[in-house]
Design goal:
alpha/beta; 46% helix
């Protein structure tokens, strides 16, 4: 194979002899433009992949899903900026994500076939989701699935104690876990999510993802929607 390559190179070299630089470049482009374009694209793609690998944020300070609303409260909204300012999280180090583009009703056929619910499940089961908001009845229904944290968990001790007078309960499908109602959410209908941002018509509730590891960020979010807004005014 090496001899074949050397012969080909020798032939091409002979074809270029006696030509001006412009003619040589024109010849190379005419016969090898596809290879040149492919090589350039490969180099650019490789550079892009390396850049993404080096700069992409791989972790979250806080990931919130705000379901079933048409209000602008997602990432980079004023609401999001208020939370970032309040907590002081450096979003160049880790992400703060507010996803307000998820729509599903778990009470209807357990949201089977709903692509938004499938995305939601993926964030829960992978441990990405920290908290979710929806109307109280919807949250209670979702809690039956086991994808919301039992607020009696010791990791939620401070949250449970502070908001124990406004807990929302569900009876899980998994009877081995409990046959009694389990606290899976907090009624936050009197927070700025309703008084200022008007997310829903029938109240607002918050649940914590069953696999969340950022409970402190959830606490800060609750503080923000009740007290942080006052501090910024």
């Amino acid at each position: 194979m090496f001899d074949k390559w050397r012969t080909g190179y020798k032939n091409e070299k002979e074809k270029l002899q006696g030509k001006t630089l412009k003619q040589k470049l024109g010849y190379i482009w005419d016969y090898y433009n596809l290879w040149i374009i492919g090589l350039v694209c490969l180099i650019c793609f490789g550079a892009f992949v390396i850049h993404q690998a080096r700069t992409a944020l791989k972790d979250h300070w806080f990931y919130l899903t705000i379901t079933n609303t048409r209000e602008d409260v997602g990432t980079n909204s004023d609401f999001w900026k208020g939370y970032v300012d309040y907590t002081g999280y450096d979003v160049t180090q880790k992400m703060v994500e507010f996803n307000d583009e998820i729509y599903f009703d778990y009470s209807k056929n357990r949201a089977a076939g709903n692509k938004y619910y499938e995305v939601f499940v993926a964030t829960v089961d992978s441990g990405v989701l920290d908290a979710v908001t929806m109307e109280p009845e919807d949250l209670s229904s979702l809690g039956e699935s086991g994808r919301l944290m039992d607020l009696r968990d010791e990791r939620c001790g401070a949250i449970y104690e502070k908001y124990k007078d406004r807990l929302i309960y569900s009876i899980p499908y998994d009877k081995e876990y409990s046959t009694e109602p389990v606290p899976v959410g907090i009624d936050i209908s009197d927070s700025i999510l309703m008084s200022e941002y008007h997310l829903y018509t029938d109240g607002c509730a918050l649940g914590i993802g069953a696999q969340s590891s950022n409970i402190e960020a959830v606490e800060k979010f609750l503080d923000y929607i009740y007290e942080g807004n006052k501090e910024q005014q």
